[in-house]
Amino acid sequence: MQRTEEIASKALNAVDNDRYKLALLVAKRAEALAEGDAPLVKLDNAKMKFTDIALREIAEGKIALEGLVESNK
């Protein structure tokens, strides 16, 4: 399992090193997961917080800010 710092670094690279965009994306995706959306990564999700799952999804390129903003309109 990767360290949290490695995952956060990959996720930050996925949003062009914009910490604000990363925070927004993690918050929106974690909210969607809390409301019942299925995780897009295969992990032991029962032991992970929604924010950790969202961060991993972003790091793996499963979630992008453009798609999330468009789906909420």
Automatic annotation (TrEMBL):
GO terms for cellular component: DNA-directed RNA polymerase complex. The keyword Ubl conjugation does not apply. InterPro entries: DNA-dir_RNA_pol_omega (IPR003716), Pol_omega/Rpo6/RPB6 (IPR006110), RPB6/omega-like_sf (IPR036161). The RNAP catalytic core consists of 2 alpha, 1 beta, 1 beta' and 1 omega subunit. When a sigma factor is associated with the core the holoenzyme is formed, which can initiate transcription. Belongs to the RNA polymerase subunit omega family. It is an enzyme of class 2 (transferase). This is DNA-directed RNA polymerase subunit omega. GO terms for molecular function: DNA binding; DNA-directed RNA polymerase activity. It catalyses: RNA(n) + a ribonucleoside 5'-triphosphate = RNA(n+1) + diphosphate. HAMAP family: RNApol_bact_RpoZ. It holds the Pfam family RNA_pol_Rpb6. It comes from Campylobacter hyointestinalis subsp. hyointestinalis. The keyword DNA damage does not apply.
